[in-house]
Amino acid sequence: MVSADGMTRVVKHYSTGRRSNEMMIVMPDERTAYFGDDGEYTMLFMYIADKPRDLSAVTLYAAKFTQTSAENGGAGNLEWIKLGHATDKEIKRIIDKGITFSDIFEVSNEPKEGFTAVKQYSGQGTNYGKIEYLKLKPGMEKAAAFLETRRYAAILGATSEFNKMEGLAVNAKDKKVYVAISDISKGMEKNDQDPTDHIQLPKVKAGAVYELNLKPGQKTIAGESMNSRYVAASMKALLVGEDLAQPDAYGNKANVNKIAGPDNLSFSEDYRTLFIGEDSSQHINNFVWAYNVDTKKLSRILSVPAGAEATGLQAADNRNGFSYVMSNFQHPGDELDNFAPTAVNIDDVKKAIDATYGIDQAGAVGYIQGLPNIEKLQKELKKQQKAQQSKKKK
């Protein structure tokens, strides 16, 4: 936490659950939060804190996705499964007692009565990505919910098929949350060999940005009230990349006029614009995009060196009368051997990057300036309109 005077205090929260956290975004109520779970066969999680600005006591939920369309990146309804309520102190006490995986679950190597088939990528070594057969031990619900969050959520019926869930952003005025899926494949494709197959979409390696529609008065699958006005009831693809049948002359595997590998997201309330940063193996140069949610116009506004990831994205509205878009890049020249351009020599590209930054050796932090403050412009416009009206009266 950072106070107004710039002093910091680090707080470790135990009650937020365990997953591969990519990003967390807090809603305007300062209680409801969504998590991006990065990896394969992952999940969409939400928690609701007991009090605003206090993340030490929360109720944790996992989403079940019911697909309604497979067109243009897909769409579906969301229902929520309550995993449990806990405080940081409760979960820390459980951890401090030395709890282990075998204290929480019974495990079978094959289908067995009373056991649930689960597929999620938390295993290690030869067990990574394999179907597990699990049975919760008596009295272990809270430990499972907050220490083995994915497995427990899957046992209860949550969707565990999302792939490469990355950045999040919130549009407070329209009550929307945006979620980046950098690669629609693997668990998100149709696969009747998986334990569940809630998501059945055509593969799009270039990925998509999804829009979650937030509504008040929602209840869990079990009919329990959720004390939040920011519960996602549905999701649909807003922007979808386009894979190329063959790479273009510069080695791009996806259309350069559309997003590919969306990662960082940031929304400007003033500009009504969603900013999207790429971390893609599909574009040789990753881009930052601006998408206006009113005009539906997508504009490419920035590119980074070949092989680098566009990161650190932040739309900063009205900072002392000015607005900015912060953007960084890291690991220039990374994995360029995966591209085979014909318009340029890839070895020459590597040499140029190595001479400027060093391959995987540097990055840069920057921002786009010169953005007018919308509130200030609106005031000036009203002032001009009044002046014109006064002239007409004279």
TrEMBL record:
Transmembrane domains' residue ranges: none
Stored InterPro entries: PhoX
One Pfam family hit: PhoX
Gene Ontology molecular function: alkaline phosphatase activity
Documented EC number(s): 3.1.3.1
Keyword Hydrolase (UniProt): yes
Signal peptide: none
Keywords from the named record: Hydrolase
Name listed for the protein in its UniProt record: Alkaline phosphatase
